Structure formats: C-alpha cells, structure tokens
Amino acid sequence: MQKPSASKLEHDLVPVIVSLEDGDTLKGSICVPPASNLGDMLNGPDLFILFQLESGKLIYLAQKTIAAVRSNKRSGTQSLDQSSKDGEQESPYTILNVEKGVSREAARDAYQHMVKKYHPDQFGSIALPSEVLAYFEAVILRLNAAYNELLEEFDQSDKRQQTNGARQNLPKTGTLN
After folding, report:
1. Does one domain contain both 66 and 115?
2. CATH number, domain at 34?
3. Alpha carbons 81 and 101: distance in angstroms, whole number
C-alpha cells in the first residue's frame, strides 16, 4: 500500500476535531475530493478517510472509529459575519467562487455545488454539535443571498438589453410619415 503524499493531494482540507470511539481526540483536516463534500466522506461506503494531522502527516482513519466530528476553524479564516477588507461586504462572485461576468448557467452550477457541499442534511448520520449545524445553516443563508443577488443582476441586465433592443427598432425623431 502506498503512503499518501501531501504534494500529490488534490483535495479540499476541512479543518476538524475528531473524537474517536476510544475517547482519543485528533486535530487536523479531513481530505475531501473536489467533487465531493464532508458529508459524502463521512457517510460514504469507504472504510477509511484520508486525514491530515496538524503536524502535516497524512494518515488513514477508519470510519468505524469516529464517534463525532467538530469544526476546527483555524485563526486567519474569515467568519461568516465578517466583511472583507475596507469594510465592504464580500461580493456574490467571491462567495460563490465565480468570476465577474459569469453566465447565468455557470452561476447556477456553482451555487448548486456549494449548497450540496455545505447543506446540513449532508451530515444527518453524524453527531455534530449544534454550533457546527448552525454554521452550515449560516453558510446556506449566505449562499442563497449571494445567488439571489446574482439573479437580480442577471434580470436587470436582461431588461437593459431588451430596452436597448427596443430602442434600436424605434424610428429616428423627425422621420414621421
């Protein structure tokens, strides 16, 4: 069996504190593949989860040994209610991790991916503290608000294009017959 290599990881690292069945506690990050989410990892059919200890060492953790998982938000990460630099709110593009000028379809896909990743229902079979569930619910509210803001922008853009198109079809002034 090959040892996992940190340099070869193409996973999202989700910082957590894992309580084990034997009473031990591990601090580190669960390695979640980009096309998956933490709930899929913890509720999936795999017998082992790739786990990165705080020291950086990678280990395989048997799922059946996990009693509970708690968020371990590290310092330096931005909280949900913090605003970005200069006191401005984060843009919906930043929240949904899309570029400005994105298509409506690409925005929808990004939104659906993020909602699937953070929806509290994904963690139904794991004993999570109420703070963690509240965090996931807050993330969902933030994603919903960002997506709704983008939808409003798309609708306004569509109306401007329709108005401009209608103006181009109007006769020029002074040319009445």
Report:
1. no
2. 2.30.30.100
3. 26
In terms of residue numbers, what domain contains 110? Answer: 89-168
Element (H, E) at 138: helix 130-168
Please say if the pLDDT value at position 83 is more than 70.
no
Same domain, yes or no, for 66 and 97? no
Instruction: Decide if pLDDT at 2 tops 70.
Output: no
Distance separating alpha carbons of residues 99 and 92, to the nearest angstrom: 10
Q: What is the pLDDT of residues 34-72, one digit of tens each?
A: 777 787 778 888 899 999 888 889 999 999 999 888 877
Domain end position, chosen among 42, 71, 100:
71
Long-range Cβ pairs for the range 129-138 (8 Å, 24+): 129/68, 129/70, 131/70, 131/71, 132/69, 132/70, 132/71, 135/71, 135/80, 138/80
Q: How many domains does the chain have?
A: 2
Residue whose structure tokens are 């970005």: 84
Residues 60 and 106 in one domain: no
**pLDDT given for residue 10 in this prediction:** 64
Residue 130 has pLDDT above 70, yes or no: yes
